[in-house]
Amino acid sequence: MDLPHKESFFNIGPERYLNYLFALIALAFIGYHTYRRYRIWRLGKPELRFDRFPERVSLVLRYALAQLKMPRDPWAAVVHYGIFWGYMLLFVATTLDGTTYWLKTLTGYEILVGPTYLLYKALIGNLGGTIALIGLLAAFYWRLAVRPPRLRYQTEDWVILGLLLFNVLNGFEVQALRLAMTDIRQHPEWAYWAYGSYPLALLLSGLPDSVLRPVHWASWWVHVLASQFAIAFIAYSKLEHIVFGPLNIFFRSLEPRGTLKPIPDIETAETYGANRVPDFTWKQLLDADACIRCGRCTANCPANLTGKPLSPKKIILDLKAEMDRTGPLYLRGQRPDGPALVGDITTDDELWDCLTCGACMEACPMEIEHVPIIVDERRYLVLNEGRIPRDVVTLFNNLERAGNPWGYPPATRADWARGLGIKTIAEDPSAEYLWWVGCAGSYDERNIRISRALARVLQAAGVRFAILGPEETCNGDPARRAGHEYLYQILAQQNVETLNRYGVRKILTACPHCFNTLKNEYRAFGGFYEVVHHSQLIAQLIEAGRVRLERPLNRRLTYHDPCYLGRHNGVYDPPRSALTRLPGASLAEMQLHRHRAFCCGGGGARVFMTETRGHKRVNHERTDHVLAVNPNVIATACPFCMIMFEDALKTRNLTDRLEARDLAELVAESAGLDFK
Amino acid sequence: MNIVVCIKYVPDWEAPASQFRIEDTRLVPAPGIAYRISDTDDEAIEAALRLKEQHGGRVTAISLGPAAARDGLKHALAMGCDQAILLDDPAFEDSDAAGTAAVLAAAIRKLGDVDLVLTGRQAADWDQGQVHAGIAELLGLPAVIPARHIEWNGSEFIVHRIYEEGYEEIAVKPPCVVACSNEIAEPRYPTLRGIMAASRAQIPVWTAADLGVDPGQVGRAGRRTRVLRLYAPQVEAKCEFIEGETPEEIAAKLVQRLREEKLL
Asked: Do A386 and B190 touch (CB under 8 A)?
């Protein structure tokens, strides 16, 4: 038989079987490491993440295998796809090689033979090596010449790259040595299918066997040892993400992004929020182990980008360090002392800087859930320690006493609607929509204008709606995101009770924060509603021809995606569909839009807090993004975004060239409705 | 160190005037209005808690009814007070400042062994600012009114009493009464642990009989002051522009107008 094939374990004697021993040892390292971390994860609180299995498998395929977030950074894509797919192919090649050997030894049947063998060599082994080489060389160039600031540059990072590069080159060398002694001499027409090692093989073929044989033998063993060392090193470096990353992606929350979990049995809980390892859920502990320290979260964090101490990456790595320090102690049944995670290691300021905008979670290739961790740590500060910034205490007091963040009297909640002929749900119990106006839409002077515009649009379109009036209170979002879960639960229970008493099914709201809470978070309290954001309803009404847009606006718009509408709930298109139908208006997108949108600075109850840290205010930074596309109008669809933009325009003296308008106002204006 | 803090639970004083109704000489808040611990009374609680945290001891919050004041006392417990006592009796209703002071003084006497009585400088509802002095008078204790700072040096309280343009530093031996101004300490927000403990706590009620107070000396029967008339003042603002050719002429005309109005 002289079909193309290769002699397995060429030039390697019976000591060849040691190879399997080393592989087992290397795998044992990974297994032991995973088991040790598993025991630490088990210290965490329970959390249900085993539901909806097919969706979870699909997540792994998309984000772990296809790595769909990678192309967002072209350099990262070349480097990571190169190394990942290169090594995947090499792994397949080695596996096929081994399978061939054992099949042949045990059954005499050979699979890698003839054209199959040549294709295997060209399209699996040598292609894998080549792709990995490209990825690795790109990695060195990226790190040495491009030097992206989000990456860290520690010894470990260089050791890993060096090791991977060495293994690829060493692999080519071993193959070249074998080819020089075999194919080059006997079957040169087979040899060039191994194009990766072929040139070196040609060079070496002139040397005598007495040189080639021992060098090949030594190189082969170096290759085995270095490869197994790299595999074992997975357990001792950031390479652990090969194991923990797919796991973490599999267990990702399948709830809408912005959804937070209640503290169970808050009335009887021993501690509130999270400070020590057992206070976190097992999934949050797994989050910390899945971190690859790539820094994408911090590089996309609006607080960090404006110079504030918060770095989502540090939040996660602080938790990991706490697990490393105290996890083993807990496992031995001891209670650790020493510095507290919240306060000493992660500072209060870092936690209060978070806008809960979710840019970190959106950017994370490992699907780490930073925001729930930060909120759990805020819960600890608020509920356990009472370490609360002044502004937040005022917020809580106002919510407790008056049911709104500013402390306006509850009795005047519906005063904004005077003269509009709007009924309360008590007066019109069969209205199609219960319009949840929200605190800003009810009390804030600027946002009252938007409520009035929306009322006019709805009336013109013949939508039958009613409001709760003074029976409405804050939905609880600011309390919850500021860590006061107890106050949130009181407000949520009260509101669910009110809504259910009126048998409400469909809710309309112009506030993305109310939208998110009512739609996603009231379920835990027995409130199941169909919740519609006004941008969605308006888009439908325009589509159906129920709102006639007649007057040309003659303005250039840009649209700012509110985090709780866009990133957290995926409502990107309806507002754009409405805006692009406005006659005489053009829509220019900012560089950071849709899922990459940059927070206005008002999320996570920050709209009620003074911004004291950092070199720039978040709303000023976002306004710069707006100015870059040179519009006359910032269109948005969130009362908090509106407050933040109005503030930025005033403090930067931009009011004569740029105005902030809600979608509802623009539509009312174009429809020729009087809403002043 | 045993500290007693006297607190008053009042309708939200920041609520707009429309939330109140005048009935004869009584002010009736709208139903559903929020009640709060009076301004500066919560600062007094905070000052007491800080002294306790530094030097040990016990903080007792007391409040003269109505029963709704129980919620205010719960808040005081949630902040960290060790016990709370509600002074409630139909005989206490409608007490004036002297009557209120008499009831509170009787309660403090009953508690006994008190080193420091803290109060707010004046309640946010009527702004009278007399009860602290009344308590001191009835118990025969020295009083510092109003204070912006207090500390304990081991044998005396060092108190900064607010002056028109500054403060005077007074060393006062316990027991004594100190009325706190808002500068004294920023009141803390209760932790959830505190709120939960407070919600389970029992608040004893002391009546006139418990205190040995003569019902004829307090409440409506014992009033020594009487509100004659209660009304919302009508504030009228008039704006007038003085015109003229030169600044001198305008100034002369202004002086003339001010004289006409008898303002000069």
From this structure: yes
Q: How far apart are CA B148 and CA A534, in angstroms?
A: 51
Assess: ipTM above 0.90.
no
| Spatial distance between the Cα atoms of B7 and B203, rounded to a whole number of angstroms | 14
Q: Which residue of A has its CA nearest to B193?
A: A384
Give the mean pLDDT of B34-42.
93
Right CATH for A548-670 from 3.10.28.10, 3.40.50.2300, 3.40.50.10540, 3.40.50.10700: 3.40.50.10700
- Mean pLDDT of all residues in chain A? 95
The angle at the Cα of A131, spanning A234 to A196, to the nearest 5 degrees, equals: 110
Confidence band of A495 (pLDDT split at 50, 70, 90) = very high
CATH 1.10.3470, applies to A53-249: no
> How does residue B34 score in pLDDT terms, banded at 50, 70 and 90?
confident
Q: Choose the closest CB to B36 out of A267, A383, A401.
A: A401
Query: Which residue is closest to B79 within chain A, CA to CA?
Result: A386
What percent of chain A has a predicted confidence (pLDDT) above 90?
Answer: 91
pLDDT in tens, B133-154: 999 999 999 999 999 999 999 9
Instruction: Look at residue B108 in the predicted model and tell me its pLDDT.
Output: 98
B33: closest CA of chain A, how far (Å) = 8
Nearest by CB: A393 against B189, B194, B195: B189
DSSP calls for A474-495 = --SHHHHHTT-HHHHHHHHHHH
Per the structure, how many domains does chain B have?
1
Closest CA to B179 of B131, B137, B115, B141: B131
> Which residue of chain B is at minimal alpha-carbon distance from A484?
B192
* A contacts of B191 (beta carbons < 8 Å): 382-386
Start-end ranges of CATH 3.40.50.1860 in chain A?
A: 391-541
pTM value is: 0.91
Give B10→chain A minimum CA distance, Å: 12
- Establish, for the pair of chains A and B, how many residue pairs have beta carbons separated by less than 8 Å: 44
| Cis before A214? omega within 30 | no
Cβ contacts (< 8 Å) between B192 and chain A: which residues? 266, 272, 382-384, 486
SS3 assignment, position B6: strand
Mutate to test the interface with B, among A390, A401, A406, A471 (most CBs of B within 10 A): A401
List of E strands, A384-534:
433-436, 465-467, 506-509, 530-533
To the nearest whole Å, the CA of B34 is away from the closest chain A CA by 5
**pLDDT band of A557, cuts 50, 70, 90:** very high
B187 vs chain A: nearest CA distance in angstroms? 10
Q: What is the CATH number of the domain that holds B194?
A: 3.40.50.620
Q: Across the interface, do B186 and A386 touch by the CB < 8 Å criterion?
A: no
**How far is B111 from B100, CA to CA, in rounded Å?**
17
Q: How does DSSP classify residue A403?
A: S
> Closest Cα of chain B to A670: distance in Å?
38
